[in-house]
């Protein structure tokens, strides 16, 4: 006997064995029902497509920001006279020192973006911290190169937002009551 008082039929056996010879019914086969909650969490086992897309876009943006920082630092080291130094600036650091800082920062930011492409958790955490430090450094660099610094700050703020966006994990739904 099947579940719920319904007979289970073997292959080729008909439901009505006492039926007239002229009437044939299609053979019925027992198909078990999945248990409740069998596939409820399957779709939400990993991050959503949008979260993955934001992470990849943030990684590429980090790599772009790192490249821009590197080139800015390289330009300041090779030709420091290119940048106009304002008198009485709160931070009295030479253009060459800023250049080395940006060169090193660019390499670190690019490396964090490359690791983020591989979706490493530590790279997400480091990416937020590094993008924050990069935004602060470029804020301090605004008097030397205002447009470039503001562009990099905007990229860094976007990276921070994209990396801190929720990733649609089951544990987050349990906490939020969803």
Uncertain segments are: 170-178
Alpha-beta content class: mainly alpha
Helix content bin: 55-70%
| Biggest pleated-sheet summary | none
Approximate strand percentage: under 5%
- In round numbers, the mean pLDDT is 76
- The count of DSSP E runs of length 2 or more, i.e. the number of strands, is 0
Distance between the termini: 40 Å
The number of distinct helices, counting runs of at least 4 residues, comes to 5
What are the secondary-structure elements, in order, as H or E? HHHHH
Shape: rod-shaped
Computed Rg: 31 Å
Oligomer: single chain
Structure, described:
The protein is rod-shaped. It has a domain at 54-81 and 92-163. The longest helix has 30 residues, at 49-78. The protein has helices at residues 49-78, 95-117, 121-140, 146-164, 170-176. By secondary structure, it is mostly helical. α1 (49-78) runs antiparallel to α4 (146-164), α2 packs antiparallel against α3 and α3 packs antiparallel against α4. The model is unreliable at 170-178 (pLDDT under 50).
Short description:
The chain has helices spanning 49-78, 95-117, 121-140, 146-164, 170-176.
Keywords for this structure?
mainly alpha
Summarize the SSE layout with pairings.
Elements (H helix, E strand, L loop, with lengths): L48 H30 L16 H23 L3 H20 L5 H19 L5 H7 L2
